[in-house]
Amino acid sequence: MWDADLHIVARLYAGYALELLEHMRANDAWKSHGFLIGSPAYQLSSNEPGTLLSETVEEILNLENPIELAPVRAQDLFDFLITHRRLLEYLSIRDKEDAEDALRTVFRQIAVYGRKVRERKGYSELTESTQPKVLPITIPHGNYVTVYQAAQICNATPKQIRAWIRKGKLEGLDLPGLGIIIEAGKLNNFLFKKAHG
Questions:
Q1: Which of these, 29, 39, 35, lies nearest to 61 by C-alpha position?
Q2: Per the count of CB atoms within 10 A, which of 4, 26, 113, 167 is most buried?
Q3: Is residue 34 within 8 Å of residue 77, measured between CB atoms?
């Protein structure tokens, strides 16, 4: 993600950074023509309605907030990625592990909720019908990072990120049973204020 105020790439996920590095290694046209970078977003579409999705879904990569890097800046990015390749590989593995942990937590929460609903349903058949007391959480549209990812971006610890949230310096959204997420724009604003404040 390009931060126009600070003129830096403020967030680049490790897995995506490694993909960029492999692309730049495979094709060196960027050395003379520059390089396009942005936040990856995937668009899924199905060609034929009523067919099995697994047979017809196409995945199209779009770039949100695209930035055209001049050849000199593209070389800087390439050098940075080469220099930090091992760290990016480590972070990519950690990001995948964090995502898998989050999915496991979600599936556990769904299973627990399902069990409670079934138990309540058996009880409510004996008494009166009741509505589940769990309300869905509405998450505003946007890009979010976890506390761990925010700590990497801010060169801080997850404990420090949580402290900033508790003190009201940084705004986070607490998802019960899942943890805290932070909207990327608010994190960028926080970093800008921190750098200039």
A1: 39
A2: 113
A3: no
- Centre a 10 Å sphere on the Cβ of residue 37 and count the other Cβ atoms it contains: 23
Task: State which H helix or E strand residue 36 sits in.
Answer: strand 35-46
Q: Residue 143 is encoded by which pair of tokens?
A: 């890009």
Q: Give CA angle at 48 (47, 52), nearest 5°.
A: 105
Q: What is the DSSP secondary-structure string of 98-134?
A: HHHHHHHHHHHHHHHHHHHHHHHHHHHHHS-----SP
Q: What is the pTM of this model?
A: 0.44
The pLDDT tens digits for 29-41 are 889 988 887 766 6
Residues 193, 197: Cα–Cα separation, whole Å: 5
Give the residue ranges of DSSP H helices in 70-197: 71-83, 85-126, 147-154, 158-166, 184-196
